[in-house]
Design goal:
Order of helices and strands: EHHEEEEEEEEH
CATH superfamily: Pleckstrin-homology domain (PH domain)/Phosphotyrosine-binding domain (PTB)
Radius of gyration: 20 Å
Number of strands: 9
Number of domains: 1
Distance between the termini: 15 Å
Helix content: 25-40%
CATH topology: PH-domain like
Largest sheet: 5 strands, mixed
Shape: elongated
CATH architecture: Roll
Length: about 160
Amino acid sequence: MTSYKHAQIGYLMLVVTLIVLVFFTWVYITARAEPPSVDSGTNLLVTAVMALILFILASFTMLTVSIDENYLRIKFGYGVFQKKFPLNEIISATSVKNHWYYGWGTTFWLWPKMWIYNISGLDAVEVVMRNGVVYRIGTDDQGGLENAIRRTINS
């Protein structure tokens, strides 16, 4: 049973992904329209790199956070990039504001030492684990996520 589930959409990443898709489509059509020669037409390696770039960009268009009986789970996009935190290892959850230069996606900072999982905006919930590792999970439902974590770790 899931006690909390929320998905945040990264609209900027959606726009960037669509712009890159349009650009790659234009490049692909332009390459196919050239007169036949040794260097004209599509290239399998270039097509594969384009597809990989689009796949990675599309992976960071949504961040889903859920809490079940045992874990706090985060999942980017369709689930290629995901992480789970055992609830019995979490000692605190606090609402925080990230600095703009922390960036989006999955980021590691040395000072202060922490992992950041963020898709959009600056609001986050800071989760401190028993081993001292700090994680910041970006969300547009800061109060709801913080309360859900506190409820489950205190029960």
